[in-house]
Structure formats: structure tokens, C-alpha cells
Design goal:
The protein is of the alpha+beta class. Helix content is about 30%, strand content about 10%.
Length: about 100
């Protein structure tokens, strides 16, 4: 059986730009798509480690935080699927797996 190891790498400049766009997109569109749909499914096809060397958040954590920190009253059931996830949950987010996140995630 293979040994599981932590695998994180430095965040590249193009990835930093992608993450900034992702957060702004989610901040803008979450209230709109959740207002018209009772259930929203968010899929990250290239989720990566969730964290980079230096502690920068990856796309899974950015998406989760966008939902948790949004100021709109989001009532929709939000399901999130992170493919390729090697996620290390950073300080400040619930531990114990996805079931530890608030209802709707």
C-alpha cells in the first residue's frame, strides 16, 4: 500500500490571478444563482491541494469561504464537488471532513 504524503507546491502568478477572478465571480453570482435555484452544484474539476506553500488558499478553500463569508442571505442548498482534491483544511474552517461544514455545503 502506498504511503499518503502532503503534497503542496508554490502558487504560480497565473494561479493567483485565477483565484482572484474565481472569488470575484462567486461573490457576484452566488446571490443571483441561489435566488432562482433551490439547489446549486459547484464542481471544481482541478481542485488541487487546497493550500499552497506559504499558506495561500487554493480554489476549494476559496469557493467554500466565498459561500461562508458572503453577506447575502443564501438559502439554497449548495453542493460542492472537488475533483482531484488533496485538500488540507486550514485553520478557521471546520475539521472532520465535509460533513462538518454548515448545512448546504
Amino acid at each position: 500500500m502506498s504511503k499518503t504524503t502532503d503534497t503542496i507546491w508554490p502558487r504560480e502568478p497565473h494561479t493567483e490571478a485565477k483565484h482572484a477572478i474565481l472569488r470575484k465571480y462567486l461573490d457576484a453570482w452566488l446571490p443571483i444563482i441561489t435566488r432562482w435555484n433551490g439547489r446549486v452544484v459547484y464542481i471544481d474539476g482541478f481542485a488541487g491541494p487546497g493550500e499552497y506553500i506559504g499558506g495561500d488558499n487554493g480554489s476549494p478553500i476559496i469557493a467554500i469561504k466565498a459561500v461562508l463569508e458572503h453577506t447575502a442571505n443564501i438559502l439554497a442548498d449548495i453542493r460542492m464537488l472537488f475533483m482531484g482534491l488533496l485538500c488540507r483544511i486550514p485553520r478557521g474552517l471546520p475539521r472532520g471532513g465535509m460533513h462538518a461544514l454548515p448545512r448546504g455545503l
